Amino acid sequence: MKSFTQKLVVTTALVSSIALGAISAQAEPTAEVLHYWTSGSEAKAVKALKEDFEANGGKWLDAPVAGGGGDAQAAVLRSRVLSGNPPAAVQIKGLSIQEWAEAGALGDLTKLGEEEGWDDVLPPLLQKIVKHDGKYVAVPVNIHRVDWIWANPESLAKVDGEPPRTWEEFNALADKLQAAGITPLAHGGQPWQDGTVFETVVLGMGGAEFYNKAFIEKDIATIKSDTMKKVFDQMRKMRGYVDADFSGRDWNLATSMVMRGEAAMQIMGDWAKGEFIAAGKVPGKDFLCVPTPSNGGYILNSDSFAMFNVSSEDDKAGQALLARLILGEKFQETFNLYKGSIPARMGVPTDKFDECAVKSMVDLQSASESGALVGSMAHEIAASGAIRGAILDVVTEHFNSDMTSDVAVERLAEAIELAE
Ligand code: BGC
């Protein structure tokens, strides 16, 4: 059966694929850029790209869609493609890139990639994400690590607390904080945020093999296992650690709660660090970054821009310029310093990156060597849109009800089977 995106594109008769390397000299490079980077730090990061683009003669048409994790943007993108008018460049990720490429909606950047030597500067891991059938169809901007705890050191000090290294320690610390009248966990009750917390617990309690068996192989015995029940038990505990107003809260507002000491910790990817940095906070002093307990695991998320099929020479020139700039060494540094992530490109000097970023770089390397590196399910690296949606539905329903862990694993198995 064809996926939703395949059907969309097949029925809308889009322009045939284009070779983005060949651009006419007279074209005025133009790009409508669809993205969901609307928080303070995200806006700074995307502004750096816009300014670079404009300084190189490009005309930038900004198309932001608010909504963390990109679910609101995904709906806009589908309707734009359906109406035969896709934006030139779109911030999408992982399997979503593959699905749009499969549907024939993306331009071919391979010639440009050859000219620019992308094969030599991009780690194979990221090449796999942005290539489809051996052709470049997107360019990666960064690597975000998902499995982080952001903690307020003053809040921890109030209960003589140390950053947790196991989930038992996490619970013990959270209990102490709660007893002292401090909200242990800043959280925004939105499905993608619930899913973000959930996947860190899956990796932490089950390990990388379990994680991949559940999310990639969709192995039913794994999904219904006692370990998965323990994951849901932990999610139930987490539900008890959030404040009364968590429903619907945006992720960056949860980050502000930690900054202001209104909550002690947040479990969120390192785009949260961008917010601390934008507020002038110093890592190690004003806030702590500690991986969620997982015995050396690492959950990878990577943002990319995919170039959709466009017909005008201006748009094609805009796409080529944008793609070239994104992988530039200087841009990779500037952008990722704002964004909280680490560069997608190899060999970018690391001296300006803070201790959290350096830890991300070091841990990425060691997790990749030990086999503990996994792709994010909640951020579409390890799971397709349909599977991710099915998982998030159950995780969110469990979080917001008194569903038992036994029922949750059954529901998860059913939802995944239906989505396949
Ligand atoms: C994206 C980040 C973004 C975050 C919040 C993640 O899925 O990869 O770039 O900052 O969502 O919107």
Describe this protein's structure.
The chain has 420 residues and is α/β, with parallel strands linked by helices. The protein folds into two domains: 7-144 and 301-358, D-Maltodextrin-Binding Protein, domain 2; 146-300 and 374-419, D-Maltodextrin-Binding Protein, domain 2, CATH 3.40.190.10. Helix content is 51%, strand content 13%. It is built from 19 helices and 15 strands. The chain has helices at residues 4-12, 40-55, 71-82, 94-102, 110-116, 118-121, 124-130, 153-158, 167-179, 191-215, 220-223, 226-241, 251-259, 271-278, 313-326, 329-339, 355-370, 385-399, 405-419; strands spanning 30-35, 59-64, 89-92, 131-132, 135-136, 138-140, 142-145, 148-151, 183-185, 263-267, 288-291, 298-301, 304-307, 342-343, 373-375. The strands form four sheets. A five-stranded mixed sheet has the order 2-1-3-13-6, sandwiched between helices. Strands 14-7-12-15 form a four-stranded mixed sheet, sandwiched between helices. Helix 10 (191-215) packs across helix 18 (385-399) and helix 12 (226-241) crosses helix 19 (405-419). The longest helix has 25 residues, at 191-215. The chain is globular. The relative contact order is 0.19. Bound molecules: beta-D-glucopyranose. Residues 1-27 form the signal peptide. Pfam families: SBP_bac_1. Part of a binding-protein-dependent transport system for a sugar. InterPro entries: Bact_solute-bd_prot1, SBP. This is Probable sugar-binding periplasmic protein.
